[in-house]
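hiii so my PI (J.) wants the whole complex modelled not just the main chain, which honestly fair. so below is everything: two entries, each one labled with what it is. i double checked the lines twice but i was tired so who knows lol
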Amino acid sequence: MSAVDTPAAAEPRTRRIIPLLVFALAVALLVATPFLPNYHIRVINGLLIYILLGIGLNIVIGYAGLLDLGFVAFYAVGAYTYALLASPQFDLHLPFLLILLIAAFLGMLTGILLGIPVLKLRGDYLAIVTLGFGEIIRIVMNNVDWLTGGPQGIARLDKASVFGIEFARPVEIYFLLLVIVFTVAVLVWRMERSILGKAWAAIREDQDAARGIGINTTNAKLAAFATSASIGSIAGVIFAASQRFVSPESFTLQESVLIVLMIVVGGIGNILGIVAGATILILLPEVLREFAEWRILFLGLLMIVLIIIRPAGIVPRSFGPDKLIRGLFGK
Amino acid sequence: MLGTIIQQTVNALTIGSIYALIALGYTMVYGVLRMINFAHGEMFMLGAYAAFLALTLVVGDIGAVGAIALTLVFFGAIVAVGFVGVGIERLAYRPLRNSTRLAPMLSSLGVSLSLVTGVQILAGPQPVGFPSFFPTTRFDVFGGTVTLVQIGILIAAFILMFGLYTLVNRSRMGIIVRAVSESRPTAQLLGINVNLAISMVFFSGPLLGAAGGILYASYYGIMSPTMGAVIGLKAFTAAILGGIGSIPGAMLGAYILAFVEVGGTALLPVVSGGVLGTEYRDVLSFAILILVLLIRPAGILGEPVSEESMVYKREF
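here's the output for the full assembly
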């Protein structure tokens, strides 16, 4: 990429000013959030969870080029891990960080379990099998009453607490989320630029050629599924800890689709794009709340228009975090 | 016992015929555009609403409508939805023809969301009772019950599917559609009007889907703006199971799925000793789908999608 970049000085001034403005706005929002009413903080927390989910799913879709429509299954795995290990359901009350680790591991395991049988499938067939997998997980959770409480779900989950500090109020959850989202985003961004990330890119562009130059496509794909699934699972733990209630209703196919849309509308394969996409698809309906159903209609039409006029997303792949950093600090 | 078997078979055939009508739309669109049309379930919903609108606004009193008027309403509604389908393709999918493979699929998600919400705004979000298009006569066959509605659905579905079969296999238009579905670049090089073929597919698919919607609504006596989502997913599963892109495959897949569902509902609790309730019939359907795809990725009757037809377009 960097070989074909034009020097920053040669770009028109507006090219640097717009990202700068958007970035300043984002920082201002993040700083202002703790002072907002609880309801608003909850909305921002929801947004951060979706950004986390988007970053996770983007590894499979945006980096490795595999369409996964059952991502919500991993989200559910994480949420139910927390619900079962930190609630009166089985009277287990493990510490939050331990559950986070267990959930990340379980998510990874589920990701690999789903990954192994579908490795040979491509494109649409992969999308459909993952979709079926997600639905199966949801239906099972809805019906294994002795384990998951069925449609009623599991309530009265423990408050999250890390080293004796409790995270229960929306503000507290907000700070917890901020740390986790930022850490995951940086890790995933570094991963994209590592040798594994380049293997993913090669698979995305041409799987046969990737195999031809000696990339172990099986391992690289499994790594993508595993990483993505464990991030989804982590998001599920935080979701469960912030709601302190889980039920199968939160893990429908529509959620998976929403996350895919966030990625594509925002900018596929680009973490900055996911932030933009999530902001539009999650915050816009909240901002337009008074327009009731009209806002959903507007959202649907906006989606079509955006995909037609900006097929690469609002923030295209070429404008990654590195460009932003360079734009902000001159070089 | 015999009566129960006959009754369950007719139930499965009825619901299978409705799935088949919708699955055909998924499979034909996939055939020509290699695109999953997520808005297709909404054509099913629109069909029911269009027929209801025609009955209440145009015909007026629902109770006193004769068979001829009902048939006219039925065909008027499905043709109208066919034109809606053509319009949607023109506005939301054609601009993306040369984009990535994912783009039109996501655009169809936007279309689906817009249509559901649009109908919710216009007609209200709550389910509405739907008048039956057939007399509610019941027959007793060896102790099992078969209704005239079911027989009517079977006949209507059969006529429509036979019509489509004839259109695709015996008409000039069918040759054009099949050529485009075989290889779009080649068809274009041979001077075939590709846009016409695609419009044709986007006319007949929604038309059949809308017919499915009307039959479904008069079978269960109810319609709602979100009715397309679940049935759409089922019909889509059926299309994949039979082999997406294959017209006989879509019909076969639909009937297999219907028999698995009806059989699963009846047999799952018995076979598993009460551990797995009837709720697991959808798990059974998806499990069968996944198994079939793992053994035969192209579905039961589908031809493996050739690399050549995939290569000319990037996935993302």
